[in-house]
Amino acid sequence: MASEAFNFEKFMQALESKDVEAFLSFFAEGVELYSEDSDQPIQGKRLLRQLAEQALPVMSQLRIEPRMVLQKGDQLAALVHSTVSYSGDLDIFGVHLPLAGKSVKMSGAMFATLNEEGKIVWMHRIRDTASAMKQLGMRPGELDRLQEQVQQFAQTQA
């Protein structure tokens, strides 16, 4: 059964340890990832890998505390609180985000569908983007530019 094959605690440990391969092992090849700040999903492990390989190394600390995790059959829902500290700036898909020395605390949720192997095939992540942007001293346009670049890159990979 899919719900028995997926271990949420190990999923969070892989992310916290910034182990890209371990993190990606929880996703199916054709995964679709949605977020609150984009109309288009991130499609496929290839694009997810590029995002993780660029974003995770600039995080000096990543702590995720599950507040509630619900699994039933192939459905998963989780409410989490996370703390992220950055040791460097993030240059991702042609957008420079000055994050060095900054930290952010926020709540978020994820909803996922698992395949028969227990891999995530569909996920929607929701987080408190406005609070994160305020804590990081970002302007709304910076996030919009990043989303546009990710979408453009995703279209070239399709």
Concise synopsis of the structure shown:
With 158 residues, the protein is an alpha+beta fold.
Description:
With 158 residues, the chain is an alpha+beta fold. It has one domain: Nuclear Transport Factor 2, Chain: A. It is built from 6 helices and 8 strands, in the order αααββαββββββαα. The chain has a 6-stranded mixed sheet. It has a two-stranded antiparallel sheet with strand order 5-6. A hairpin with a 6-residue loop joins strand 1 and strand 2. The mean pLDDT is 88.
Provide the descriptors you would attach to this structure in a database record.
158 residues; alpha+beta; Nuclear Transport Factor 2, Chain: A; two-stranded antiparallel ribbon; 40% strand
SSE diagram, text form:
Elements: H1 2-5, H2 8-16, H3 20-24, E1 27-35, E2 42-43, H4 45-55, E3 59-72, E4 75-86, E5 90-92, E6 95-97, E7 103-114, E8 120-127, H5 129-136, H6 140-157
Parallel strand pairs: 1-8
Antiparallel strand pairs: 1-2, 3-4, 4-7, 5-6, 7-8
Structural class by helix and strand composition: alpha+beta
Low-confidence stretches: none
> Averaged pLDDT, please?
88
What is the succession of H and E elements?
Answer: HHHEEHEEEEEEHH
- Per CATH, the architecture is Roll
Principal-axes geometry comes out as globular
Strand content: 35-45%
Strand order of the largest sheet: 2-1-8-7-4-3
- CATH uppermost class: Alpha Beta
Radius of gyration: 15 Å
Count of beta strands:
8
Percent of residues in helices: 25-40%
Q: Count the helices. How many?
A: 6
CATH topology: Nuclear Transport Factor 2, Chain: A
* Distance linking N and C termini: 31 Å
Q: How can the largest sheet be summarized?
A: 6 strands, mixed
In the residues, how many domains can be counted?
Answer: 1
